[in-house]
Design goal:
Helix content is about 30%, strand content about 20%. The protein has eleven helices and 15 strands. Helix 1 crosses helix 5 and helix 10 runs parallel beside helix 11.
């Protein structure tokens, strides 16, 4: 039986983690599937329960802005100064920093065998207390079956893992709705490995001495990615997902059977449609759409008659990159006006 832990049973959740059990926890982004990061058996269970590829490294979650120093090595004073400023100004928050890992701190099950590790401090008070009570950082990949949409509610976690993990820490829906921005500080140049709430411009504004390169890590066939979400198809429900720019949605809907096709779009787009299809509102604007994206991808899981989901693809600009990145990984078909 999977327990629903609350602030009143936080000690029990920490004890479960200390004993090597898995406990899902909320963050400002999505729910994470937690295991204590110094227990190799527990960490391996995270991979097993999720069905996660073994070369997909895990992000380590800490409870305060200073403890990252205990887990990294071989970093210049100049780079340490930058990391300190990023932590001071953007933590707790949706930013993961990939750093050179200190030998012997985390086993290769956490790091994917790399010499780096992703570290972040989530912005959720109960989860920060949970990590502190557990006494060691937690790994926390998204608490969903591998390849499926990430969870933004307790119900999403229970849908995938009820009876398979020790518990989940109760919380309201996550505030941001997509995973953290991952920034690589282990290389000479600094660059974004995975887009998230914090954009390039936001990071450079918060810490002006940071210059984010346009460089991208190009993975070879057998190469291990430095961060999650870079190598494998993600976020896909058990149906065809067609991502369509709003100017083409009406034409796309006309090509499909209304009884088997659902539509997910922003309120302005939905209000202009004269359709009998099942629909899901992504809200009024881009931040709402981003927060609701994974819920939209899960909304019709238990409706076997729905075999196709047509979902609005937001315009291509920096503020929409996290939404576009996740949707384009989920989609079986992408239809854009300009190629």
């Amino acid at each position: 039986m999977t327990e629903i832990y609350t602030k009143d049973t936080l000690d029990e959740a920490a004890e479960a983690l200390q004993a090597g059990e898995l406990v899902a926890f909320p963050t400002e982004t999505v729910f994470g599937l937690g295991a204590i990061a110094n227990d190799e058996t527990a960490v391996k269970r995270v991979y097993q329960v999720k069905g996660r590829p073994s070369d997909n490294p895990l992000i380590v979650h800490i409870h305060n802005k200073e403890t990252w120093k205990d887990y990294i090595d071989d970093v210049s004073e100049e780079r340490i100064h930058i990391i300190e400023k990023l932590a001071d100004r953007l933590w707790p928050g949706p930013l993961t920093m990939v750093l050179p890992v200190k030998s012997g701190v985390f086993n290769k099950t956490v790091t994917g065998g790399l010499s780096t590790v992703g570290i972040r401090m989530p912005d959720h008070p109960l989860t920060l207390k949970l990590i502190e009570k557990t006494g060691f950082p937690l790994v926390g990949p998204s608490a969903n079956l591998s390849g499926k949409p990430s969870p933004t509610t307790v119900a999403h976690v229970m849908h995938d893992f009820d009876g398979k993990i020790a518990g989940v820490l109760s919380s309201q829906s996550t505030r941001i709705g997509v995973e953290s921005t991952v920034i690589d500080l282990s290389d000479e140049e600094i660059y974004i490995l995975r887009p998230g709430y914090y954009t390039k411009a936001m990071i450079e504004t918060a810490v002006p001495e940071v210059h984010i390169s346009e460089k991208r890590q190009v993975l070879g066939k057998d190469e291990t990615p430095k961060a999650p979400g870079m190598k494998y198809r993600h976020y896909s429900p058990d149906m065809d997902v067609i991502a369509v720019e709003k100017s083409q949605i009406t034409d796309e809907i006309a090509k499909h059977d209304s009884a088997t096709t659902a539509i997910a779009a922003t309120d302005g787009v939905l209000s202009d449609l004269n359709i009998s299809n099942a629909t899901f509102s992504l809200g009024a604007d881009a931040p709402s759409a981003t927060q609701q994206l994974f819920s939209a991808l899960r909304a019709f899981d238990d409706e076997p008659n729905i075999t196709t989901l047509i979902i609005e693809l937001l315009p291509d600009h920096e503020g929409n990159q996290a939404y576009r990145n996740r949707l384009m990984k989920a989609a079986s078909t992408i239809k854009k006006v300009s190629g």
